[in-house]
Amino acid sequence: MAFTFFFRDQHTLELIAQYVIPDLKRHMYINIWDAGCAMGPEPYSLAITLRENMGPFLFRNVRIYATDIDERGDFGTTIQQGIYPESRIKRIPAELLQRYFTLLDDVSPLQGGTDGWDMRRRRRSAKVVHAKGQPGQAEREDISIPPPLADEQGMQEGNGRRTATVRYYQISEEMRKAVIFQQHDLLSLEPIRGGFGLILCKNVLLHFTPQERVAVIKMFHEALAPDGYLVTEQTQKLPQELSSLFYRVTSAGQVFQKQPVVSLSNHLSRAKSGVEHAKTKSGWGTLEADGIEIKTDWAFTGASKYTWLNIELKGQRIGKVRVDISGDVLKIYSLTIFPEFQGHGYARKVITLFQTDWRLERPNSPQSYKAIVADRVRYTAKGFWEKLGFVDDNHGNYVWPNIMAGH
Q: Average pLDDT for consecutive 10-residue bins of the chain (407 residues)?
């Protein structure tokens, strides 16, 4: 669908904010692919959502690669300029409209015949509202205001001529720098690059045959980073034959996290029994306390340099932990409790469980762990680790017990 509007699917954006952005924030550079971006409202809506949920410093490292087959050949210009008629932005909350958009001055009523609208060159000197809300004066610049679509011209008949007043808004430069347009045909089955933390593909797959959908989603899987996410529209169910490639994060929408491909023989050999799991070099026995269980996620662990642990509560998966247990230090890279289970102290219970059982003998080694290290702790999370007895090692990591004391 070539023509859309901002915040068309607010529900999906909320799911991305809840389930995807917390993981994206752990990366220094964040690459996202919006496949089937149309004229730009969707990638820009995503950009605003990211900026609102991660702040200006992390957002500087966000790049959204917006692609479309673009048979008209004008999507790139529209996205680059970021200028849209008022009808496209009516769903944007007032505070976001003020924060990220500028109303363009000197857009007079357009008059024309019945065959179309002229492109007009306009000059503007408009007040810009920056991210923090301080007004500033924009430089004067030449811009091309695109002609309004037939369904948004607000035409009035009079004396055989058509007259309409169309107000245009331009999205902020910060948002325009984050979105990069590229012409691309999904059915080429060639990804534009790899290592994406998120791929968003909405209202596109439904136009493909079942075989084409499977092929395109397989391409997305290859293009995602090991812990990347795929998000599709509500009506687009994941084909059954691809269920082993993705884990559905929430039943509230079509949000999936990539699972690495594990060979069938390797997977079956590991799945014979819990005893076999415990004997695997990179494996972990089940830890359990206060109803919380921590189990190795074999679908992830088999094809990753990390060990992935599922956090379960009475058999229900409530979160995940990414660790390295190959050495004599248990290194925690990420700990995520899914949003619907937050606020109950489960993250604290997980770390306490590690601390309680941290001297478990590891497979193939008689030694116990010397320490637990939380890798590259964010400033906002330091208090959490400090309350659990972890100490800053002066390199951005937090260590338990305080092995630094003897140095």
A: 77 94 90 94 96 94 92 83 92 93 68 34 37 39 48 43 73 96 92 93 92 93 91 89 87 87 37 33 53 67 63 82 77 82 85 69 50 84 88 88 50
Q: Could you give the CA distance from residue 277 to residue 286 in angstroms, rounded to a whole number? A: 10
In this prediction, residue 187 carries a pLDDT of 92
| Residue-level pLDDT at 326 | 64
**Rounded distance, CA 245 to CA 94, Å?**
40
Three-state secondary structure string covering 188-246: HCCCCCCCEEEEEECCCHHHCCHHHHHHHHHHHHHHEEEEEEEEECCCCCCCHHHCCCE
Contact 24, 197 (CB under 8 A): yes
Burial class for 401, CB neighbours closer than 10 Å (0-12, 13-18, 19+): middle
Domain containing 231 equals 10-103+170-258
Q: 118 in a domain, yes or no?
A: no
DSSP-derived letter for residue 72 is S
Query: Counting beta carbons within 10 angstroms of the beta carbon of residue 332, is it exposed (0 to 12), middle (13 to 18) or buried (19 or more)?
Result: buried
Is residue 351 within 8 A of residue 388, CB to CB? The reply is yes
> Are 307 and 240 found together in one domain?
no
Q: Among 258, 273, 303, which residue terminates a domain?
A: 258
What SS3 class is residue 90? coil
Same structural domain for residues 247 and 277?
Answer: no
Tokens 């590991």 locate to 270
By C-alpha distance, which of 279, 275, 383, 393 is closest to 331? Answer: 393
> How many whole angstroms separate alpha carbon 273 and alpha carbon 377?
36
> Are 292 and 341 within 8 A, CB to CB?
no
- 120 to 116, 162, 263, 282: CA distances (angstroms): 13, 16, 59, 64
Token output for 405: 């004391």
